[in-house]
Amino acid sequence: MKQTTYFASHLFDGDTWLRNKLISVAMGRIQEITDGSQQQADIILDGRVAPGLIDTQVNGGGGVLLNHQPSIETLICMRNAHAKFGTTCMLPTVITDSYHVMASAADAMSEAIAVKQLGFLGIHFEGPHLSAPKRGIHPEDQIRGLSNQEFDLFCRQDIGKVVVTLAPETVPPEQIQALCNAGVIVSIGHSNATFMQTKTAVDAGATGFTHLYNAMSMSNAREPGVIGCALNTQETFAGIIVDHMHVHDLNAKMAIKLKTPGQMMLVTDAMNFADAPESELVFNGETILLEQGKLTTPNGTLAGSALDMMQAVVNTHHGLDLPLSTSLNMASSSPAAFLGMSDTLGKVKVGYSADFICFNDAYKITANVCKGQSLL
Questions:
Q1: I need a surface site. Which of 48, 141, 290, 353 has the fewest CB within 10 A?
Q2: Is 239 annotated as a binding residue?
Q3: What's the cofactor (predicted)?
Q4: Does 79 appear as a known binding residue?
């Protein structure tokens, strides 16, 4: 078998920072990690090497949005755009839309997986089973209950990992349990549920919370709400958008402290703006404007982000004063664990998928490797 050896002067393997290591890769996996020098390597990784970043909530990139063009070409464009910023694997995300758009996106993912396109772990359906008062930019006329047709779509076996964001007050716990029993990963979001409604959904099998703090019922003196449940169920994971705009830094710090970093995932919730010149987007008849890194509709509603995964890591490291290793893990090993893939993703170790990035002192990505192949 053909083997490629990479030299890393500074390697974070997911647990420890190591010096002067040779990473031997064959058949898409890491075969061996040993001490060595540049002279012994086929490829020299100039900078710091870390596990590839995994984005479990990304709506678009490279000037395209999955909802607008649910095709394999859109998926590839999104992957290529975000790869420049450290994303090695992703779950392209469909915002609340018609069944036709959802099914077309699923078909595109099925095609991408069938032809072994790199970087796609599955698909995230954010809606349409949400709370209308907490819908954000999700079109109100498409918010609806869970039909048998949509249940069957979520349970398809040819589209990789499936995450479904739903509001527990709109989907009975029996249906949540049935989804989870079928292998669907249920995440709670865009919800005005009470603590008990939310906890019932967790007891039924929901394991995630989508963009923590945003579009969910707040805690008060007598009602913990969705946020209170998220912060007090240690077995669940929570995605969070660390762009200093969606969530106040103190709230982000509190969540990480209460849940621990291992249960917190950095996500982008990125629209089409990553690696694209556009400054506005029309979605569902509304214009979304990008101004000073913030995406809003004319009435001031937050509308996704222009964030990328490496910037999320930097914001967590510098803005939240967390170690770089912890910040990297929140973008790699945490999402891998959420997806049930921590035995193959999220670390640079023997037996794991050969997914890793290299970045310089300015946090610019200089290499992005997925299953032993370059994404740049």
A1: 141
A2: no
A3: a divalent metal cation
A4: no
